[in-house]
Amino acid sequence: MPDNFMNVHELLSISTAKKFASGSVLIKEDDKIAKDMYIILKGSVGVFKNYGTKEQVQLATVGAGDTVGEMSLFLNEGRTASVIATEEIVALQLSPGNVFEFFKTQPKAVLGMFKLVCSRLQKANASHTQPAPAASPIASAAKILPVQGTPPAVASPPAKAAAPLVQVSSPLLPEGHGAYDLHLEEQDKSLLYLREITCPMCEKTFKALATRTTKLVKEKDDLDLRSYFKGIEPMYYSIAVCPHCWFSAPAALFAKGNGNKYKEVQELMVPYKSELPMKFGEELDSFSVFASHYMGIACAPIAYRKEHYGIVASLWLNLSRMYGDCGDAKMTDFASQKALESYQDVFTKADISGDQAGRVSFILGDLFAKLGDYAQSRKYFYDVKRNRDCGGLLRNFADIRLDDLKKIAPPGEGEAEA
């Protein structure tokens, strides 16, 4: 038996096999927060610098039996490259929370992984050059084949052909917005249904895709408070758009829109009806998911009162995550900056307190960290720790984030340390 033998069935006791569609972003360059490592069981991924830009360069291709991201997990450093699924893949995800179980159950695989990394470093030292890009602290890839057992099947309905990408120039969409694929055809359709909704503006009824919340199975909560669910991303279906008057808002708040503002909403949306190829109901596509968020941002100040600050902030946060899902780092930063500004408005202009104020503080801390302002990030995470109305989990997350920040950028003179 080789010394790098790995047993998939044992790994399934500590992690979950996930299917990723072609084009999915497993690791994003410059991400200083995520520390997950992936073991590829089926298919292959590409390691890229400057992914999604004109300077994009592919550094390596790795496949079944490889790992990516292990150096970031072990060294607690940021990502220096992006890892993108170049075809449909099945992978196991290991996080700081379950990596020690990996050490205990897969010692030979771990030994094989470290042997490869050490071999790369030895070669680099011998030639007085830097280690190969694929072995960087971020998007490193280690071969730990052979794999015992067949990669587990990931249950999902037959995939439909991917819809053609749509790119439209419109004043509604910001400069730099491109054509994106959220791989909606890969979402588990058994977790969706057509919900009948009555528009508070035009009072007409329509049907929109919605998630079956009682059937959702949460896989994990990231340290940026984003939740991941098995087989589906509910965020993509969180906005309701009336196909008659085009009023758009988060589905949970849709019915609370001020119907007296119908005329204003109609005037706002009329120009976009002729230029945006929106699709509704079961025909929903990636373009429409993005556009519906921008339409919701435009409608919120008209249809809601003080609630609109929180609505706008949450929609910008969704957009930053969706751009990240599609590997567009520039637009991710753009939307993150907008989300940060909007959540600052929530703090100063909306009526929030207690646990809600703590969650907003945490989100601001996360956004400042992602945008590189570590001093401000620390300030908001300390605010979470001091807020006794926050749950223990949120304060624990704030502690973890503060520890990460100390490693990324130690506190400067005059900054709080506790």
Characteristic key phrases:
about 425 residues, alpha+beta, 4-stranded antiparallel β-sheet
Walk me through this protein's architecture.
The chain is α+β, with helices and mostly antiparallel strands. The protein has helices at residues 8-11, 70-75, 99-105, 107-126, 262-273, 286-303, 307-325, 329-349, 354-370, 374-386, 392-408; strands at 6-7, 17-20, 25-27, 37-42, 44-49, 57-63, 66-68, 82-85, 89-94, 141-143, 147-148, 192-198, 205-211, 218-221, 227-229, 239-241, 248-250. The strands form six sheets. A five-stranded antiparallel β-sheet has the order 2-9-4-7-10.
Shape: globular
**Mean pLDDT level:** 82
- Biggest sheet features: 5 strands, antiparallel
Approximately how much helix is present in the residues? Answer: 25-40%
| Unreliable sequence segments | 129-142, 144-148, 155-160
Strand neighbour order, sheet with most strands: 2-9-4-7-10
Strands, count: 17
Please report which band the strand proportion falls in: under 5%, 5-15%, 15-25%, 25-35%, 35-45% or over 45%. 15-25%
Topology as a string of helices (H) and strands (E):
EHEEEEEEHEEHHEEEEEEEEHHHHHHH
Structural class per helix/strand content?
alpha+beta
Terminal Cα separation, in Å? Answer: 51 Å
Rg on CA atoms, Å? 23 Å
Tally of DSSP helical segments = 11
